[in-house]
Amino acid sequence: MAQKIWRRFEGKVAIVTASTQGIGFAIAERLGLEGASVVISSRKQKNVDEAVEMLKNKGLEVFGVVCHVSNAKHRKDLIQKTIDKYGKIDVVVSNAAANPSVDPVLLTQESVLDKLWEINVKATVLLLQEAAPHLQKGSSIVIISSIAAYNPQPAMFMYGVTKTALLGLAKALATEMAPDIRVNAVAPGSVPTNFAAFITKDEAVRKIAEEKTLLQRLGTAEDMAAAAAFLASDDASYITGETIVVAGGLPSRL
Ligand code: NAP
């Protein structure tokens, strides 16, 4: 794959949240392969250390910071340590999310509603508030939403609602941060990561998910990384406030 990749992020600094595995890791790797200095983060130091090691072994410029996205001090640290190390921020990818309950909307506990809002939506806003003073003309933000933003799915109804909110957040921030900074989103379909294990580990459920797509397969983390890298890059310099659905042709109308 590496030989097909351009170097669109040469000299740029990119922060990716929740990036020690899965889609976030693939985005960090892609931006790094394209020349970015990449700051990866997640809740657990051990995961951060291991992911840094993996990316360094591929020859990438990478720096790791522990950041639980709903922890104010961690968010501050993530931004400040990036500035201390690299002096600027060109790209922020907000990728962290939680789906703490499979309950129907009308049975979801208030504490779960709060957690969904806090991690999936509020933490993105607060992280970007922290990052904004360091962003400059040409900086770019990518928010990871979900196909569930468009299509309510049993076991993830309220999660989907928070992901719909992110489509609105991308539009609102694109308006607020224009003309210097672009803000877009990616809405992944099902990708076999830990997060989606309840869909992708069971052979029968997985087959149904594959057959629902026009392309007859699940997505890969690399599919999502390619879209995120495009939106973050100058190739998308006339695109803002948009969401790219990367879901194998699943319907995606609100
Ligand atoms: P994943 O493979 O399970 O990876 C989750 C990553 O997030 C890990 O690095 C984890 O590391 C970190 N993390 C978890 N909670 C965190 C928190 N509160 N603060 C900071 N880091 C945290 O998940 P994924 O499937 O790649 O999902 C990434 C994004 O894609 C999410 O926004 C998800 O909603 C979206 N998405 C996924 C799918 C799919 O099918 N996989 C589909 C649509 C959208 P630690 O444990 O060390 O924190």
How many strands? Answer: 7
How can the largest sheet be summarized? Answer: 7 strands, parallel
End-to-end CA span: 34 Å
**Main β-sheet, spatial strand arrangement:** 3-2-1-4-5-6-7
Rg calculated over all Cα atoms = 17 Å
User: What shape does the CA trace take?
Assistant: globular
Beta-strand percentage range: 5-15%
Structural class: alpha/beta
Low-confidence residue ranges? none
Individual helix count: 8
Oligomer: single chain
Relative helix content: 40-55%
Order of helices and strands: EHEHEHEHEHEHHHE
Q: What molecules are bound to this protein?
A: NADP nicotinamide-adenine-dinucleotide phosphate
Summarize model confidence as the mean pLDDT: 96
Task: Describe the SSE topology.
Elements: E1 13-16, H1 22-33, E2 37-42, H2 45-57, E3 62-66, H3 72-86, E4 91-94, H4 110-131, E5 140-144, H5 157-177, E6 182-188, H6 197-200, H7 203-212, H8 221-232, E7 243-246
Parallel strand pairs: 1-2, 1-4, 2-3, 4-5, 5-6, 6-7
Helix pairs in contact: 1-8, 3-4, 4-5
Pfam families: adh_short_C2
Protein name: Indole-3-butyric acid response 1, SHORT-CHAIN DEHYDROGENASE/REDUCTASE A
Family: Belongs to the short-chain dehydrogenases/reductases (SDR) family.
